[in-house]
């Protein structure tokens, strides 16, 4: 393409030279015409100059046509190069997109799958401070999970007076504990282990210590004997399903 470009420039320069010669030839012919007496020698000279002018015009036309042809060819080469560049860019973008997709796939494979709790599952949640100054843990049901903010929308099990539903609010993932499945295997905590447990006849969970786990009692049972904090050392029976390992902040 560079050689063709140089050739076009060379032909354009040649065309300019021919045009300059043509101007000189025209001026010479004009000079002979201005003579008062045109002798036979002058006539012969003019005839020679006319022939030379016609020949020069033909050369000028041929060079101009050749230049046009070269410019068309040069234009095609430029378009092909641009198309090739665009195609290359598209291939690179496609490759980059594919690589990015593979990277995302690898990241997703490495990233452990989150156990998002299903809708209407009963859970234990820590109340937000703006709703409960003491930030107690209560029974609630999952309404939905908001992925963008990484929070659950939940509903208090304890219904609001004269309402069909309990209070609804948002709570962080870290402040939600899923209850063990009924009838399934439940982790058993040993004596003196710190837990949070459902206080009898309420929907609230409070700190407590295990006195006797189910397997250590004289009868077959699913209940713990435990003692809640600030409960005058009273011994309470609580279903194992509602006895959970105390969060680190409460131990």
Helices, strands, pairings?
Blueprint: H1 2-33, H2 40-110, E1 122-126, E2 137-146, E3 151-159, E4 166-172, E5 176-178, E6 194-198, E7 204-212, E8 223-228, E9 235-239, E10 243-245
Helix pairs in contact: 1-2
What's the short story on this structure?
It contains two helices and ten strands, in the order H-H-E-E-E-E-E-E-E-E-E-E. It is of the alpha+beta class. The radius of gyration is 48 Å and the shape is rod-shaped.
Key terms for this structure?
251 residues, alpha+beta, SH3 type barrels, 10-stranded antiparallel sheet, 41% helix, 25% strand, SGF29 C-terminal domain-containing protein, nucleus, SGF29, transcription regulation
Describe this structure in words.
There is one protein chain. This protein is an alpha+beta fold. It is built from 2 helices and 10 strands, in the order ααββββββββββ. It has helices at about 1-35, 40-110, and strands at about 120-125, 135-145, 150-160, 165-170, 175-180, 195-200, 205-210, 225-230, 235-240, 245. The protein folds into 3 domains: about 1-110; about 115-180, SH3 type barrels, CATH 2.30.30.140; about 185-250, SH3 type barrels, CATH 2.30.30. It is about 40% helix and about 25% strand. The mean pLDDT is about 80. The protein is rod-shaped and about 150 Å long. Strands 1, 2, 3, 4, 5, 6, 7, 8, 9 and 10 form a 10-stranded antiparallel sheet that branches.
């Amino acid at each position: 393409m560079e050689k063709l470009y140089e050739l076009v420039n060379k032909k354009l320069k040649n065309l300019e030279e021919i045009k300059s010669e043509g101007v000189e030839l025209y001026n010479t012919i004009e000079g002979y015409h201005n003579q008062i007496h045109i002798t036979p020698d002058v006539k012969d000279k003019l005839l020679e100059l006319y022939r030379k002018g016609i020949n020069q015009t033909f050369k000028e036309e041929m060079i101009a046509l050749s230049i046009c042809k070269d410019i068309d060819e040069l234009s095609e080469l430029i378009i092909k190069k641009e198309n090739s560049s665009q195609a290359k860019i598209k291939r690179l973008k496609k490759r980059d997109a594919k690589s990015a997709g593979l990277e995302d796939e690898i990241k997703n494979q490495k990233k452990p799958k989150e156990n998002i709790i299903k809708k209407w599952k009963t859970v234990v949640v820590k109340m937000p401070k703006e709703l409960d100054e003491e930030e107690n843990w209560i029974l609630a049901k999952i309404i939905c999970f908001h992925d963008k903010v990484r929070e659950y929308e939940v509903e208090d099990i304890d219904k609001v007076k004269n309402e069909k539903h309990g209070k609804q609010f948002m709570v962080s993932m870290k402040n939600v504990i899923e209850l063990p499945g009924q009838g399934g295997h439940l982790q058993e905590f040993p004596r003196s282990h710190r837990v949070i447990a459902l206080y009898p006849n309420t929907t609230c969970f409070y700190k407590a210590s295990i006195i006797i786990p189910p397997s250590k009692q004289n009868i077959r049972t699913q209940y713990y004997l435990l003692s809640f904090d600030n409960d005058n050392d009273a011994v309470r029976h609580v279903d194992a399903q509602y006895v959970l390992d105390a969060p680190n902040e409460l131990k």
